Amino acid sequence: MVRTLLRQDPRLAVGSVAEELARRIPSPAPSKQSYEQAERERVVLAARRQFRTALLRISENTRLLEEWRAGHFVVGRREWKIGKILDHAARTGDVPRTSYPGGQVHVTNHKLLGGRGSEKTWGRPV
């Protein structure tokens, strides 16, 4: 903006200042380096695998929940228990938890979900 203002001043229209104001200022070099083609392909492939795995898990869990709600599983069996957990999660937005006398709260049936932490339950094998 200052450069534009200085160019409009008639006193700076000639001489070394005018030459300096007329000189092009090069654009700065990009600060980020793009992925090379091979690196980009590896990133895209990893993303596809991860999202495909998630899509398959979501699809399988949706099917299992629908079958559970329709009463297609024997009460107490593994699929029935997972269906019950999925139903609870669909209704409450969280997995069932058990409160213990000492104040600890743990995920109920965490083994069915693949572990105790959310990073484990998200990756539950279908």
Annotate the secondary structure layout.
Layout: H1 2-8, H2 16-22, H3 37-69, H4 78-92, E1 97-99, E2 105-107, H5 110-113, H6 118-121
Antiparallel strand pairs: 1-2
Silhouette: elongated
Euclidean distance between termini CA atoms:
61 Å
Element order: H for helix, E for strand: HHHHEEHH
State mean pLDDT (0 to 100 scale).
85
- Global structural class: mainly alpha
Number of helices: 6
Number of strands: 2
Helix residue percentage: 55-70%
Strand arrangement, largest sheet? 1-2
Task: Output the radius of gyration.
Answer: 31 Å
Q: What's the main sheet like?
A: 2 strands, antiparallel
* Proportion in β-strands: under 5%
Uncertain runs: none
Overview of the structural elements:
It is a single chain. The protein is mainly alpha-helical. The chain has a domain at 58-126. The chain has 6 helices and 2 strands. The protein has a two-stranded antiparallel sheet with strand order 1-2. Helix 3 (37-69) packs across helix 4. The mean pLDDT is 85.
Brief overview, please?
The chain is mainly α and 126 residues long. It contains 6 helices and 2 strands; from the N terminus they run ααααββαα. The protein has helices spanning 2-8, 16-22, 37-69, 78-92, 110-113, 118-121, and strands spanning 97-99, 105-107.
